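Late entry, evening session. Most of the bench is empty. Finally got around to the prediction I had been postponing all week. Sequence below, unchanged from the version circulated by S.P.
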Amino acid sequence: MVFEEKEYMIGDKKILLRSAKTEEAQLLVDYLKTVCGETRFLLCDPDEVKYTAESEVEFINEKNSSEDSMLMLAFVDGEYAGNCSFLPIGSRRRAKHRADIGIALFQKYTGFGLGRLMLKQLLEKIKELRYEQAGTFKKGDGAFVVHDGSEKSTTLLDVIPCDGITDFDLALKANTHKKEA
């Protein structure tokens, strides 16, 4: 799924969100190695990243042509800042209503609302596809709710760190029921 290019301002920072381009494959590999070294909350260490530019081109093409998953890149004042994505957890009936979310930013681009903006945009796409739950699996404990499951529209609620951990464990409960007249 292609994420159409969108521009935002957060304070004095110009934000661009869009899908990846195949010519950015090596950039994405290098980024992953760097962010995995900046935090212990991602699933691997830098030396465990075995992706190549060629495999990343395949990944980008797969995401851009998918009907049920997406990769979104973020740029701050023209510099690559990180990305987020979602994909279905499985094709089995008991799991196909769930999406897995991934997000990581270079450390220098955290703390001013970029991750929140990215997740809001990602969750809008997830809701459009009628997933009922979305989350990310992380190292550590704690949960951060992004939707309360009521008839309210999807909103990103305040992130509440648990045991000092500011990584995300998100849950989305999309409104799939019709409102009664």
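Two things to note before I forget:
Residues 6-171 form a domain with the Aminopeptidase fold (CATH 3.40.630.30).
The beta strands are 6-10, 13-18, 70-76, 79-88, 98-105, 133-135, 144-145, 170-171.
Will write this up properly tomorrow.
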